[in-house]
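This protein record is not my work; I was only asked to verify it. Would you go through it and say whether the fold makes sense for this chain? Here is the record exactly as it was handed to me.
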Amino acid sequence: MSILRKKSSKQRRERVWPFVLLLALLLGGLGWLRWHNQLVEKKSRQKNPAPVAAIKTSSPPLVEKIPPAATKPLPPLKPLVIPPQSATDFPRPVRDVLEAQVALMHHGISSGSLDGAIGSQTRAALAAFQHAENLPATAALDADTKEKLQLDAPSFTDYTVTTNDLARLQPIGKTWLEKSQQSALDYETILELVAEKAHAHPLLIQKLNPGVDWANVATETVLKIPAAAYPEPTDKAAFVVIHLAGKNLEAFDAATNLILHCPCSIAAKVEKRPVGELHVAVVAPNPNYTFDPAVFPESPEAQALGRKLILPPGPNNPVGVAWIGLDKPGYGMHGTPIPEQVGRTESHGCFRLANWNAEYLLKLVWVGMPVRVEP
């Protein structure tokens, strides 16, 4: 009997042992898989670190402005080949994104700095056009939109660099004090000047003019640029709507027809976004800028100065070439020295536009005009 019990116990152990071994292998495999995934995740974080929040101020960061193309070494730019365009070819539907961006401006719709790329601001511009023309709201450059969005003239033109252009160029001070001591806060480079005049990204201007030495541009140099221009306003706007969620600004006439759409930077903090109805209180073209240290508590330089400064006018002024003050103290719609960042960076509270959009808005607004800020 004792021998039978021993045999039975031994048989049970022999039957259980494979299951124990299988369980051990399974647990070991799960442990190795968890370790491997953690290792891969760690390497991924090292290779692609999380983005650091951008510094947000009520005006552009206080740094010397350098065109994006010159901030770091870049591979050679691929020239942008322009097919021959004859005046007899027009009007015709747009053929590509860049032509669409140019044609949209002729309808008072800005996609930001012209770059020939489909991004969020171009999609928003296309959606605005589609809504105005009662087209399906695809926010894409589809066949119906191409057919409706016609070009009346060539999408490119020539710009000749003048003596006055070159005479305007000057370095921009790196500190508030240095900026306040300048005669003007004008353009620093001819690339910056031409890009803003063409409402275009500096990289696009470089692609259109691959043979130009931008460090040594001479008078009478002929440059190829987009033929971007707003229609001449026939009347003032009736009201403006700022869409916080979409980060854009729109102006409408008395019949609620869209007469301006453009990207807009908004306040970084939700509590600084004044939802509701405001009104235009002051209109100032080419303004100077009062630097108040109290507005920049995060700036050591501002706190060391301890006094207000007056910065001269110019496209590199913190509020650009236009200031449209609102009836909420400290708030306004204005230009910016760095148009490529509009809608992509945030402010203390003001509504920041590209200089060319701020200039056009200046032609449409009037003191007392309603400005609705919507979530």
